[in-house]
Amino acid sequence: MFHTRPAPWCPVTHGLAIHEFRDDLAAHFHDINVEWINAMFRLEDTDRDVLEQPRARIIDPGGRILFVEAEGLGIVGTCALQKTGPTSYELTKMGVRETARGRKAGECLLAAVIERARSLGADPLYLLTNSKCAAAIHLYEKHGFRHDAGIMAQYGARYERCDVAMRYVR
Fold first, then answer.
1. What is the signed CA dihedral for 127, 133, 139, 142, rounded to 10 degrees?
2. Which residues belong to any copy of the N-acetyltransferase domain (predicted)?
3. What is the pLDDT of residues 107-120, one digit of tens each?
């Protein structure tokens, strides 16, 4: 599955490739997200719904799911753009396997997802997270996301664990 051509959005491209959603990758979307959610929180009903039906809940309504593959390790990360309105997209379900952390796979994946959101005309592009995810929040800030009370008010009730809402501003 690995392609020798590096992902064009990756700050460190050596050994990383980006893939679009395919049904045969759905198990990776599920398993990678269950791994990080269970490590820090508990799965909520909305998590289960999306993770068990990614085509119906994300792809078919106009969203996207991307994967990052690390040479020698296979698929190590995933992230979704879930369409939540005519032009609004939530960056959601971003996770990287513990075994691949430190390889810049998350940064590569985030850059690719932002680029994909731009191509879709996402406005707003936002995310919902928890303050316990400090490293992820730092990464989001580094790539142009800013804390946004309006996003929290409009979308934050979706998850019980949500106490941080951010909007992409670049």
1. 80
2. 27-165
3. 999 999 999 999 99
Angle ∠(97,76,79) on CA atoms, nearest 5: 90
pTM: 0.90
> At 22, which CATH number?
3.40.630.30
CB burial readout 17-28, b (16+ within 10 A) else e:
bbbebeeebbeb
* DSSP result, 44-82: -HHHHHHHH-HIIIIITTT-EEEEEEETTTEEEEEEEEE
Helix (H, G, I), strand (E, B) or coil at 17: strand
Number of domains in the chain: 1
Q: Is 1 inside a domain boundary?
A: no
Decide if 66 is inside a domain: yes
